[in-house]
Amino acid sequence: MAIARILIIEDERQTVDELRDHLESYGYETEVALTAPVGVSVLEERKMDLVVIGEDVHETSGLDILSKLKELAPGLKAVLMTSQKSKRYQASLLKLGAQGVLTQPLDKPTSLKLIEGVLKGPVSAGKKRSRIHARKKTNINPRARAAARSKAKSGVKRSRKN
C-alpha cells in the first residue's frame, strides 16, 4: 500500500520523470498531469494527499493552478516548484497558499524531506507553512543577539534606535 498519493502537475518531462521515479522509490503513489486541465480532472476523479505544481505549466501560472485546485479540494496540501532562488519570492508563494517550495534543479534528498514534512503537517486552508520554511528569520547578528540577552539577564534595559 502507498504511503500517500501525490499528483505532479508539470510540463517539463524530465523533471516529472525524475520526481515521479524518486517518490515512487520511497513508496509514494504518483499521478502525473502535463497540463493544468488534466491535473484538475485527476483531482476530480481521485483523492490526492498532496499536489506538486510547476511554476508555469503550458503558460498557466502555478499559482492559478493552485487556486483552482484549492476550490475543488480546500484541504489539499500543495508544494510549488520554482527556478527562482529568491527567498522573498519563495515566501510570497507560501503566503499565497503553498505549504512548501521546491527549487529547480531538484535536489532529491531535499525534495523528499520537504514533501514528507508537508504531508506530516496539519491540513490547512493554505496559510500554514512547511516546517522547513516556517523558521522565523531576524536581521540581528548573533553577537548583537547575545549581547541583548546578557543585558536582559542582568536587568539592564535595552534601548531602541529609531
What labels describe this entry?
Rossmann fold, two-stranded antiparallel sheet, 43% helix, alpha/beta, five-stranded parallel β-sheet, 162 residues, disordered C terminus, 17% strand
Can you tell me about this structure?
There is one protein chain. The chain has 162 residues and is an alpha/beta fold. It is built from six helices and seven strands, in the order E-H-E-H-E-E-E-H-E-H-E-H-H. The chain has helices spanning 13-25, 36-45, 62-72, 87-95, 108-120, 142-154; strands spanning 5-9, 29-33, 50-53, 56-57, 60-61, 77-82, 100-103. The strands form two sheets. The chain has a five-stranded parallel sheet with strand order 2-1-3-6-7, with helices on both faces. The longest helix is centred in the N-terminal third of the chain and has 13 residues, at 13-25.
What do the pLDDT scores average to?
A: 82
Radius of gyration: 19 Å
The total count of strands amounts to: 7
Number of helical stretches of at least 4 residues:
6
Characterize this entry briefly:
This protein is an alpha/beta fold and 162 residues long.
Helices and strands in order:
Blueprint: E1 5-9, H1 13-25, E2 29-33, H2 36-45, E3 50-53, E4 56-57, E5 60-61, H3 62-72, E6 77-82, H4 87-95, E7 100-103, H5 108-120, H6 142-154
Helix pairs in contact: 2-3
